[in-house]
Amino acid sequence: MKQFFSFLTVVAFSFALISCGGDDNTPSIPEGTPESVTDSKSISFEVLASKGSGFDIPQTLKLEDFAKLKDFAKYVTEAKMDPKKSFIKISGIKEEAPAVKTLMLSVEGTDIRRTFENVKNGTFDEYDTDLEFLNQVIKRLGEQKSIVLKLQGQAEEEINKELKVEIILTADFIR
Q: Taking the model in full, what pTM does it have?
């Protein structure tokens, strides 16, 4: 009889351990939570640099920075960029003597980068390389939940915040 009770105790204890679950850290998704959320975010870099100096401006971007993702961010497993509503815009460049010959946008700690040569004013949304760069940025953000974007360059002349690089990201965030 003792063996029977011992056996029942071991079985009950085993079921108790199994029902506790594993080490899954994903939060349970409340009923009524949408499958995806679409949102946009503008990220701006304003450059302040003296003539001949390099600049390296980091900016952290988190899922929670997207207004519609405040409560949804913890459920995001992937993100897909909307190529019709995502672009890079550079402004404040003087046509006669550009303040910067080369600009580079990158995601810190990765090989995701976009270099702009002979920079002029304008929107660079028509280039496949921009869309591929932006797609990689948003995909990485969906996976990592937080990334650091960096703008780097070399000032050919003094820049007093007139040079502005703006990234507009629009994406579907999927749970």
A: 0.76
